[in-house]
Amino acid sequence: MTSESRLRDLSAAGLASKLDGDVLWPDDMDYPEASTGYNLASNRRPDLVVMAESTKDVVEAVRFANVNGLAVDVVATGHHGVRPSAHGLLINTSRMNDVHVDGAARRATVGAGARWSDVVPLAADHELRPIHGSSGHVGVVGFTLGGGLSPVLGRKYGWGADHVVALEAVTAAGAVVRASAAENSDLFWALRGGRSSIGIVTSMEIELLPANRFLGGGLFFDGADAERVLAAFAQVTATAPEELTLSVAFLRMPPLPGIPELLAGKFVIHLRVALIRSAADLDVLLAPLRESAPVLVDTVQELSGEGFEHIHNDPVDPAPFSEETAMLTGLTPEVQRALLEEVGPRSTTGLHIVELRHLGGALTRVSPTVRSIAAENASYVLWAVSIGMPGDNAAGIAEARALVGAMGEWSTGTRYLNFAPDDGRPDTTFSAGDWARLQQIKTAVDPENRLRTDEPQPRS
Asked: How many other C-beta atoms lie within 10 A of the C-beta of residue 376?
């Protein structure tokens, strides 16, 4: 009897009958989508997928894995890429997308599979908003556990992880625990920035903020003007108020269906803008950027809280891509020259997206309830993306690594977890002290390393 046949028999006898959800096998029609998610470069081939619909389902899946010696992985929307893997049990939480908003308490309780598009409209009904990402299709829990860098609210209010009130999680032993600053505080600290290697979060309670309209959108420039635009970006971000969040992206998008004509097959600079202030303030703040070079398209406008997706305009359809990242200490003329040499108009890079996101403000202040995100010495996050399946994209992956290497002199030495590839170097996303503490917690809660992701592993 093959391993898969044995597992099928065991599942039919002891697992499937206990679930609210379903079990998928490699020959099931829904298996490929359930095991991969948004980033098609994540080539998972688990022995079985549990489509969880409740915390009870997650508990049963983990207990089944323990009895049968299976590694456990977790996916919700699958935006974060992972290395190709085979065997084990994958828990897909995408069906656990319940959202409850308590307007009076300014709190939202979200299931493990909820997306920002599930949460933001419900919060807006109460004139509230969460610390969200750039896309409504990204999962709330994964985004937040990886730090939660908001392109609208982060510089003013901090990381999404800073606004977690409490978590419900299933441990590697199959126990359900509640974690907060007052209860299981080590687990609470570790999960907010350490992700799912520590425990499988099944629901999360987050703080909500007043939902004011804001100004947001983008300025598009010809790639030939990259040097002038980057210099203006450095000038504006050096003195920007916390209410202003900017990022600049070097875009070289392929001429594929669904890519806007403005971008397809061209080198374009996209300045992303969000301001929680008046239009008059915005005109003054953006003047150096608008005057730096001819603006091809200006989409900056007043937006409701639900309009946040119009800033980055992230693609909705799944695609294969690989990424790399670094945190930079500054954007001096020397740093600008180094970056332009790698990805500017005279370079031959094949990288499709290279973005610099401005940090500072609340993002670089230590949280009162410290979480495991190493950003206190960083001023910018560098993010590089190459589109393609890993087997066909060796050159792009190498270019992304080379870019980060070229910027190493001005790097903090740490990486933002949500942008970091699964390359076997999870320690580089944390400070040395936080990494040691995460390993201690991992060893205590999962000594057999049942929950296997690229994040903290038990100490040997």
From this structure: 14
What tokens does 226 get? 């990259």
| Whether the domain at 3-92 and the domain at 99-210 fall into the same CATH topology | no
Distance separating alpha carbons of residues 307 and 214, to the nearest angstrom: 9
CATH number of 3-92: 3.30.43.10
Per-residue pLDDT tens over the stretch 291-331: 999 999 999 999 988 889 999 988 888 888 889 999 999 99
Q: For residues 246 and 273, is the Cβ–Cβ distance under 8 A?
A: yes
Q: Contact at 8 Å (CB) between 347 and 285?
A: no
Chain centroid offset of residue 151 CA = 12
Question: Would you give the end-to-end CA distance of the chain in angstroms?
Answer: 34
- List, for residues 271-298, the tens digit of each pLDDT value: 999 999 888 899 999 999 999 999 999 9
> What's the pLDDT band for 1 if we cut at 50, 70, 90?
very low
Element (H, E) at 284: helix 279-290
Q: What is the CATH number of domain 99-210?
A: 3.30.465.10
CB-based contacts of 334, cutoff 8 Å, min separation 6: 410
pLDDT score, position 175: 98
State phi, psi for 208 to the nearest 5 degrees: -115, 155
Instruction: Give buried/exposed letters for 346-375 (b at 16+ CB in 10 A, else e).
Output: ebebbbbbbbbbbbbbbbeeebeeebbbbb
Cα gap 367→280, rounded to integer Å: 32
Q: How many CB atoms lie within 10 A of CB 261?
A: 8
3-state SS of 385-454 is EEECCHHHCHHHHHHHHHHHHHCHHHECCCCCHHHCCCCCCHHHHCCHHHHHHHHHHHHHHCCCCCECCC
pLDDT (average), residues 246-273: 89
Among the listed residues 260, 153, 127, 125, the one whose alpha carbon sits nearest the alpha carbon of residue 216: 153
Cβ-contact 180, 104 below 8 angstroms: no
Kindly report the CATH class assigned to 214-419.
alpha beta
Q: Map tokens 């099928």 to a residue.
A: 8
Residue 274 exposure: Cα atoms within 13 Å on the Cβ side: 27
- 389, 40 Cβ separation under 8 angstroms: yes
Q: Residues with Cβ < 8 Å from 267, sequence gap 6 or more?
A: 222, 223, 224, 250, 251, 252, 345
The 3-state DSSP class for residue 31 equals helix
pLDDT band at 369 (very low <50, low <70, confident <90, very high): very low
Model confidence, pTM:
0.92
Domain boundaries, the chain: 3-92, 99-210, 214-419
